Amino acid sequence: MTSFINPRRLYTFVLWLLLPYVAFHLLWRARKQPEYLQHVGERFGHYTVGSKHPIIWLHTVSVGETRAAANLIQQLQKAYPQHQLLLTHTTPTGRAASEQLYGNEVLRVYLPYDYPFAVANFLQHFKPSLGILLETEIWFNLIHACHVKNIPLLLLNARLSEKSASRYARFPHLTQMGLKELSAIAAQSDGDATRLKNLGTPQVAVMGNLKFDIEPPATMLKLGAVLRVQWGQNRKIFLAASTRIGEEALLLQALQQINIPNMLTVIVPRHPQRFDEVANLLTQRNIRFQHRSENLPITDDIQVLLGDSMGEMFAYYAACDIAFIGGSLLPYGGQNLIEACSVGKPVLIGPYTFNFAQATEQAVECGAAVRVRDVAELTQIVQNLFNHPEKIDAASKAALKFVNAHRGATQLAMTHIAPLLPHSQK
């Protein structure tokens, strides 16, 4: 009997059962980030913004995807000037990053939850000529609605970890239905492509990773030079970027063991709602620290700078000597190390990097990054690098070479987009 049940209808039924949790989730997240209660109507398909021009729609979930799309957005604007670009997001930080990066050049809204009525309202309101989902965004009702309305929908820069693949494999019929209704799929790596094929989609191209094509903004490089002066030209600067819950405590433990006179550690939590939490941790440990938001020169007695600002990560990378990429000391899966490499900074990465497995392995192999097993080894590596500046210089050159060798994903993405747009390029 179960074989006659449409798996997408069962999926939708479960979504309806979860509706009370959806409301609770927004309220819960709003405790620390009130922005979650803004534009709530958009999450259910109600919109006030629009455009008289045909729309190309990109779904960039949060900050990482929004940044990664920069070069693709630029190429789309150049190739299809008659179209208006629409960016959809899931998180307030992604939406804020879009505002900072692209201003009024694009429209931005939240993607609706995957309820049929909300998806229908979204597609009816914007009537996109083409849609692009980035990384691992497989929403079955959204995909089906685009398929029914003959709206080309692509999954580009697709990334699928073994853990995520196993989760989708539990629902083979639903997953196959969704993947087969996409107009095209292009994965970041051979491994990602293989995992997608194993889920039941026969045609998966490999395009590389859009993050390699990102160009450090000139404004951020200039700001980085200013920050370096504020922090101290002659100080050793160790950056802990995109740290997650529990990692700051481990890093502070490591700092006590590093014997580098006058070293300044810059800690930038991944999520802005944790700025106060990390500040309290520093206070409890009697560590002399200062807030980046104060925008003041750093005196010699300051041990830690708390990076409590938004959209300045490239500037932080430009200003530091060595960058540790957070989310990797504990099993979060790691964050993007490519941005640090693109600025030519040596990268340290922990043992948990399944979110960026291939890029991390490639960076380690070519000497652009060093993997550490734990906080004790992190301490040793930081000490060793600062005691041997020539190693920092070699790793910096390797980082730039690593990024330059893997560029080109944007152009491959454009080759998948071009045949599907109803209007010819101009």
Protein model, in words:
Helices cover 44% and strands 14% of the residues. By secondary structure, it is of the alpha/beta class. The chain folds into two domains: 2-208 and 408-420, Rossmann fold; 218-405, Rossmann fold, CATH 3.40.50. The radius of gyration is 22 Å and the shape is globular. The protein starts with 6 loop residues before the first helix and ends in a 9-residue tail after the last helix. 42% of the residues are buried.
Which range does the strand content fall in? Answer: 5-15%
Question: Over the alpha carbons, how many angstroms does the gyration radius reach?
Answer: 22 Å
Derived structural class:
alpha/beta
Shape: globular
Report, as a whole number of angstroms, the end-to-end distance. 53 Å
- Name the CATH architecture of the largest domain: 3-Layer(aba) Sandwich
Number of domains: 2
Biggest β-sheet: count, sense, barrel? Answer: 7 strands, parallel
Helix coverage percent = 40-55%
Number of strands: 14
Give the strand order of the largest sheet, numbering strands 1, 2, ... along the chain: 3-2-1-4-5-6-7
Task: Write down the CATH topology of the largest domain.
Answer: Rossmann fold
pLDDT averaged over residues = 94
Spans of at least 5 consecutive residues with low confidence: none
CATH homologous superfamily grouping of the largest domain = 3-Deoxy-D-manno-octulosonic-acid transferase, N-terminal domain
CATH class descriptor of the largest domain: Alpha Beta
**Tally of helical segments:** 19
